[in-house]
Amino acid sequence: MIHVVTAENMQDYAGALDQAFRLRHRVFVEELGWSNLARPDRREIDEFDDEHAIHLLALDETESVIGYSRLLPTTRPYLLPMVLPQLCEGAAPSGAHIVEWGRICVAECARTSGRRLNPTALALMTAIVEWGLPRGITSFISEMPTSWILRLLQLHLRAMPLGLPHEIEGEEIVAVEAAFDGRSLRQLQNKRGDIRSVLAPPRVSFARLAS
Questions:
Q1: Which InterPro entries match (predicted)?
Q2: Dist. CA 85–CA 173, nearest whole Å
Q3: pTM above 0.70, yes or no
Q4: Tens-digit pLDDT profile for residues 158-167
Q5: Furthest-apart CA pair in the chain: how many Å?
Q6: What string of DSSP letters covers 150-208?
Q7: Is residue 129 within 8 Å of 155, Cβ to Cβ?
Q8: Domain limits of the chain?
Q9: Which pLDDT score, from 0 to 100, does residue 208 have?
Q10: Are the beta carbons of 140 and 92 closer than 8 angstroms?
């Protein structure tokens, strides 16, 4: 299931977050070669991993992190305008109804081959829509390979490029704003073949019970 980790419950996920940062390092630094993100402790953490970040953790039955992505509010400085402004023609979108979705990665053990969308990645995307809609969030910004745009449209997310693609680290990347609604959630559930929630119930720690 997908666990939503915020500043409020971060203490309940210390071990899982450590796994997530190490997964990010394996994927983005060691596999994709983004050497500017390398750290001696092999935990990929940047300036946006602050108290405003929302971490989506896909955990298996052993509590191992098999997938990860991060949401950032666009009412504050976020990655697109601060790090990749060349991908956006005009002002970067912002608003309480928009988040930035990034650092998307799946552990080696959970990867699949073929054209079918990876189940872990699909669950992470479903989590954004399922978690976001009740909170008034109706779209996300993401920097992604251009080939992903068609996939978003097939999932009934209304994806619109924010600028022309640029080659980054050897791959053609485009910034997209993808709007979603209840139809998007139904399509995501249809693709998953399961209408049950992907969101894990909130954890209640001993410390919070004691308080």
A1: Acyl_CoA_acyltransferase, Autoind_synthase
A2: 12
A3: yes
A4: 999 999 999 9
A5: 53
A6: HHHHHTT-EEEESS--EEETTEEEEEEEEE--HHHHHHHHHHHT--S--BPPPP--HHH
A7: no
A8: 2-199
A9: 52
A10: no
